[in-house]
Automatic annotation (TrEMBL), chain B:
Keywords: Cell membrane, Electron transport, Membrane, Translocase, Transmembrane, Transmembrane helix, Transport
Quaternary assembly: The complex is composed of six subunits: RnfA, RnfB, RnfC, RnfD, RnfE and RnfG.
Leader sequence segment: none
EC number: 7.-.-.-
Bilayer-crossing regions: 39-59, 71-90, 96-113, 125-149, 169-189
The protein, known as: Ion-translocating oxidoreductase complex subunit E
Topology relative to the membrane: Multi-pass membrane protein
Automatic annotation (TrEMBL), chain C:
Major place of residence: membrane
Source organism (scientific name): Mobilitalea sibirica
NCBIfam families: PRK05151.1 (NF003481), rnfA (TIGR01943)
Family: Belongs to the NqrDE/RnfAE family.
Protein topology in the membrane: Multi-pass membrane protein
Compartment(s): Cell membrane; Endomembrane system
TM region positions: 44-64, 71-88, 100-122, 134-154, 169-190
Protein name as it appears in the record: Ion-translocating oxidoreductase complex subunit A
Subunit structure: The complex is composed of six subunits: RnfA, RnfB, RnfC, RnfD, RnfE and RnfG.
GO BP, one annotated term: electron transport chain
Superkingdom of origin organism: Bacteria
InterPro entries per the UniProt record, alphabetical: Ion_transpt_RnfA/RsxA, NqrDE/RnfAE, NqrDE/RnfAE_oxidrdctase
Short name of any one Pfam family annotated for the protein: Rnf-Nqr
Name of the gene: rsxA
EC number: 7.-.-.-
Length: 216, 253, 191
């Protein structure tokens, strides 16, 4: 009997100490979370901003296009094209040059078609329908393979091209709309190409500035 | 002072977790696609290891014996999450390239293994230095394997081109199968040269937990092994008894 | 329906947990000596991983997200998985002794199996719904069963081969795993 109560009290003691450790751990985590929340958010905004500036060098200021961003949030991308499955346009910004004229759009698009999960990239798109450039915002593909999507050699293939739809090719790109696949990483190439296409198609279909909206 | 240095050399050379103890095989194979990833993963693990060793050693007299494993896991998971926040805030690209392998540090055998076999029995400062040593040893291992795979598979090291222009990189080495091949070659070399290693030749090694269960998860692992052995070899009870006493000895020591 | 099927096939074959994500290597290398034990281990993983995917994604979506505690997922998941394994072991022991005899010994090994935690975390990072999470967990576990049984089958044969001395044991198993990983690349054409 005495043994029994002793056992019980030790179980309670064990449970209490485990509970205390878990509680302190939880509180500590909550504290660190609060402290790092701001730097994390700041870092994300900065990364996106830097990407915006590098994809649209002619533009100086960017302001969020609330209307298009809102439309994008509920837009049925697959309705535009089946290959846009799993692609979301997170944010559309208007790009202005130094004399405050609207020169085009930049947008951030996220695709889950990547080999290791999601890839987010920023795309600059001018009013005359030219892709100004692309930049990776977050990418976690295989180093040495898919990660090569984040090299100028790959990204520059998109710059200053006025095409409606890019296409992946496994041989040397001969035509304007062809993008040379990264060797050994066709899935990543396709994911990026589809994401750019999806963004371009969305802007063309919805922006009143470029003309898609008025055609509806 | 000497004792502290001894802990570090022990971790880096004598009991190197990658080359000698063969622990933490999941990250060793998964993130060593480049030297940069290897060093990033190694240092992240080191940070968690030092912090958890320090705290577990400080609390070693307060944590009841029966609930020590869950307590350790809670402490380790907390530090892993904290490190994850810091990476997100200050090194987002590393965080993105290591992905879910950062939270998976929680189940890395090395950390629980060091907590159980060292930090739970030794004073605070020594435990922290043990963490530094083991962590650096792990970093060296991952970086070396990462560099090897990167040179063969991409022709670069830390993203600098090092191979002659006419060398066509052997892609397979940075793909998943390459990881298995590289570690296979490594262990074969150890066997050939008769180096001290957890996987070295001995037929009785059951390979669980990357080769050596006894030094990995403390008695959770040992009992697991006991159970499996017992179920497999009820008939050959003699062997089982021998193993059990061996495991018991390990537990007691 | 079609999407669930794609998730299932992708998890089982294309993004195989062991051969392409390197999760659950310990049991894969440690318990693959005999096809019998490998099958037992695989079955136990299917059981636990499916259940763990269900429970962790329910907890994530109905407790952590409303309470804005998403950042606690690692610590919560590992505790839930550890508790779940213990619980399953107790329930099986009490209500289904035959099943317990078949799977029981493998259950404790699964707590330290990073594949279960890994799959739970992937469910969250990929924003899977509860149903998709369960399908993904089940698929990943089927992939695990498939690879560990295949591996055990191969290892039983390797026993009779004349492997060079320094390649015996661990090295030849890793080479085999590498060759299997190459073979599994073929599945990426499925999607």
């Amino acid at each position: 009997m005495a043994d029994n109560t002793k056992k019980k009290s030790s179980i309670i003691k064990d449970a209490i100490s485990l509970f205390l450790i878990t509680m302190v751990a939880g509180l500590a985590l909550g504290y660190v979370y609060e402290v790092t929340k701001e730097p994390i958010a700041k870092m994300q905004i900065e990364t996106v901003n830097r990407a915006y500036h590098s994809v649209f060098t002619d533009a100086v200021t960017f302001t969020v296009d609330e209307e298009l961003t809102k439309v994008a949030a509920e837009y049925d991308m697959v309705g535009l094209d089946p290959s846009f499955n799993g692609i979301i346009i997170d944010e559309v910004d208007k790009a202005f040059d130094d004399s405050n004229n609207l020169v085009g759009y930049v947008f951030k698009v996220t695709t889950n078609q990547g080999y290791n999960g999601t890839i987010s990239l920023a795309v600059g798109y001018s009013l005359d329908g030219t892709v100004k450039g692309i930049e990776m915002v977050s990418i976690s593909e295989t180093a040495g393979l898919g990660m090569n999507a984040d090299t100028p050699k790959f990204k520059d293939q998109f710059s200053n091209k006025t095409v409606e739809r890019f296409e992946t090719t496994k041989t040397d790109a001969t035509e304007e709309h062809q993008i040379e696949a990264i060797s050994g990483a066709t899935i990543t190439t396709d994911a990026v190409v589809h994401a750019v296409n999806a963004g371009v198609a969305f802007i063309n279909a919805n922006s009143t500035e470029i003309g898609g909206g008025t055609n509806e | 002072m000497n004792k502290l240095l001894e802990r570090i050399s022990n971790g880096v050379v004598k009991d190197n977790p990658t080359f000698i103890q063969m622990l933490g095989m999941c990250p060793t194979l998964a993130v060593t696609t480049s030297a940069t990833n290897g060093i990033g993963m190694g240092l992240t693990t080191t940070a968690v290891l030092v912090a958890s060793n320090f705290l577990i050693s400080a609390l070693r007299k307060l944590i009841p014996n029966k609930v020590r494993i869950p307590s350790y896991i809670v402490i380790i998971a907390t530090f892993v999450t904290i490190v994850e926040f810091l990476l997100k805030a200050y090194l987002p690209s590393l965080n993105a390239s290591l992905g879910i392998y950062i939270p998976l540090i929680v189940v890395n055998c090395i950390i629980l293994g060091r907590a159980e076999s060292y930090a739970a029995k030794n004073p605070v400062v020594l435990s922290a230095f043990d963490g530094i040593g083991m962590g650096l040893g792990f970093t060296v291992g991952l970086t070396a394997i990462g560099a090897f795979r990167e040179i063969l598979g991409a022709g670069t090291i830390f993203n600098f081109k090092v191979t002659p222009a006419n060398y066509e990189p052997t892609l397979i080495f940075i793909l998943a199968p390459g990881a298995f091949f590289v570690v296979a070659i490594l262990t074969a070399l150890q066997n050939k040269l008769q180096l001290k290693s957890a996987t070295n030749g001995s037929a009785k090694s059951t390979l669980s937990c990357g080769g050596n269960c006894g030094s990995c998860g403390g008695d959770t692992c040992t009992t697991n092994r006991e159970k499996i052995e017992a179920s497999k070899e009820i008939a050959a009870s003699k062997a089982t008894v021998a193993k059990k006493t061996e495991a018991q000895d390990q537990k007691n020591s | 329906m079609k999407e669930l099927l794609i998730v299932l096939i992708a998890a089982a074959l294309v993004n195989n947990v062991v051969l392409s994500q390197f999760l659950g290597l310990c049991p894969f290398l440690g318990v693959s000596k005999k096809t019998g034990t490998a099958t037992g281990m695989g079955a136990a993983v299917i059981f636990v991983m499916t259940l763990a995917s269900l429970i962790t994604s329910v907890i994530y979506n109905y407790i952590l997200v409303p309470a804005k505690l998403e950042y606690m997922n690692t610590i919560v998941f590992i505790l839930v998985i550890a508790a779940l394994v213990q619980f399953v072991e107790m329930v099986l022991k009490k209500y289904s002794p035959p099943l317990y005899n078949a799977l029981g010994v493998y259950l404790p090994l699964i707590t330290t199996n990073c594949a279960v935690l890994g799959v739970a975390l992937i469910n969250v990072t990929k924003d899977y719904s509860i149903l998709t999470s369960v399908v993904h967990g089940f698929g990943a576990a089927v992939g695990f069963l498939l690879t560990i049984v295949l591996m055990a089958g191969i290892r039983e044969r390797i026993e009779f081969n004349d492997v060079p001395k320094s390649w015996q044991g661990y090295p030849i198993v890793l080479i085999t795993a590498g060759l299997m990983a190459i073979a599994f690349f073929g599945f990426s054409g499925l999607l």
